[in-house]
Specification:
With 145 residues, this protein is α/β, with parallel strands linked by helices. The protein has one domain: P-loop containing nucleotide triphosphate hydrolases (Rossmann fold, 3-Layer(aba) Sandwich). Helix content is 48%, strand content 15%. The strands form two sheets. It has a four-stranded parallel beta sheet, with helices on both faces. It has a two-stranded antiparallel sheet with strand order 3-4. Strand 3 and strand 4 form a beta hairpin. Helix 5 runs antiparallel to helix 6. It is globular. This is Adenylate kinase family enzyme. InterPro entries: Cytidylate_Kinase-2, P-loop_NTPase. It comes from Faecalicatena orotica. GO terms for molecular function: kinase activity. Keywords: Kinase, Transferase.
Length: 145
């Protein structure tokens, strides 16, 4: 199987989007765009939707890229430019386990795929989002793809 040069990787939090995109980048030499690094500023403060969209438009003009992240509000923007979409579709228990494992590894520290000043934390709403992903988000993403 040959992958394209404009790759979108989506799936629930904890599905392995960042791990896969980093590995594909190592193999292919294609730059990874981590949407969390764009959307979040220090202390988990989000940028405006317009600024987020404009930054993506600029980055998606490049000839080759791997985009790691969901962000439904701008999903169509990435989807229309991509030649390959990888949907990581794992059981919610696996995703929650991976997120908890990641939190234990990085809690109170910075992860390389998020913006400077965004220290790893865990919130109940985040876990609820992952739990509800198969019912709330998955069908909409599959429909769009």
């Amino acid at each position: 199987m040959k992958l394209g040069e404009k790759i979108v990787i989506v799936g629930s939090c904890g599905s392995g989007k960042t791990t896969l995109s980093n590995r594909l980048s190592e193999i292919s030499g294609i730059e990874v765009i981590h949407l969390d690094r764009i959307y979040w500023q220090a202390d988990w403060i989000s940028i405006s939707e317009d600024a987020f969209r404009n930054e993506q438009i600029k980055l998606l003009r490049k000839a080759r890229w791997i985009v790691d992240g969901n962000y439904a509000s701008s999903f169509e923007l990435r989807l229309t430019k991509a030649d390959t979409v990888i949907f990581l579709d794992y059981n919610r228990y696996i995703c929650i386990w991976r997120v908890l494992k990641r939190w234990m590894k990085f809690r109170g520290r910075l992860r390389p795929d998020v913006a400077d000043g965004c220290y790893e934390k865990m919130e109940w709403d985040f876990l609820k989002y992952i739990w509800r992903f198969p019912k709330d988000t998955r069908p909409l993403m599959l429909e769009r793809v």
